[in-house]
Specification:
The complex is a heterodimer of chains A (117) and B (115). Chain A is mainly beta and 117 residues long. Chain A contains no helices and eleven strands. By secondary structure, chain B is mainly β. Classes of the chains: A mainly beta (117), B mainly beta (115). Chains A and B meet through strand 5, strand 9 and strand 10 of A and strand 5 and strand 6 of B.
């Protein structure tokens, strides 16, 4: 089975440009998470969706960041306008809640390394 | 609030040595889940293990073993007979129960295994 798919794997852009990161979760998974990894802050959760609905976006750094999940097999994370401090690795993860109250494993995509010049 | 502490920033060992990576957590939940992930130099995050707080049995998987001690809030990871391919950053993570299983990660331990 295919794992979580992310594109692009690497993105280099200039300050002020719009950046769109893409994620395809594992088929059948009903939770999708976006994380950011930096040396300074480590791995931090930005937002997560359940059944395509955003549940908690408290980790989104500011209004320049937005995320959507138009269907069960696709999500985007957009940064507009981008800034050098947004440079990081962005991970998408998905999981399946098997029963109410249970916690399943999050499986991560390969990440997108974003560099904003 | 949940917190995961991995006090060891970097560990260097020689191949075939055993090595233990420490993980201490804090949570007010009576039910929770603990995880270990591996991040090799290629950058992806690879799931290693998931443990329910009700299950304090230690687990062994090949050269990997995990020691969960609820009394000390620790979930340590031991690699036996380390190999160069074990070189990676290892993250311990904590999650509350429920479908929105937000992971709180530790800062990671960089393991370097040398010949």
């Amino acid at each position: 089975d295919a794992g979580v798919i992310q594109s692009p794997r690497h993105e280099v852009t200039e300050m002020g440009q719009e950046v769109t990161l893409r994620c395809k979760p594992i088929s059948g998974h009903d939770y999708l998470f976006w994380y950011r990894q930096t040396m300074m802050r480590g791995l931090e959760l930005l937002i997560y969706f359940n059944n395509n609905v955003p549940i908690d976006d408290s980790g989104m750094p500011e209004d320049r960041f937005s995320a959507k999940m138009p269907n069960a097999s696709f999500s985007t994370l957009k940064i507009q306008p981008s800034e050098p401090r947004d440079s990081a690795v962005y991970f998408c993860a998905s999981s399946l809640a098997r029963t109410s109250g249970s916690t399943d494993t999050q499986y991560f995509g390969p990440g997108t390394r974003l560099t904003v010049l | 609030a949940q917190k995961v502490t991995q006090a060891q920033t970097e560990i260097s060992v020689v191949e075939k040595e055993d090595v233990t990576l420490d993980c201490v957590y804090e949570t007010r939940d009576t039910t929770y889940y603990l995880f270990w992930y591996k991040q090799p130099p290629s950058g992806e995050l690879v799931f290693l293990i998931r443990r329910n707080s009700f299950d304090e049995q230690n687990e062994i998987s090949g050269r990997y073993s995990w020691n969960f001690q609820k009394s000390t809030s620790s979930f340590n990871f031991t690699i036996t007979a380390s190999q160069v391919v074990d070189s990676a950053v290892y993250f311990c993570a904590l999650s509350p129960p429920g479908g929105g299983n937000k992971l709180t990660f530790g800062t990671g331990t960089q393991l370097k295994v040398e010949l």
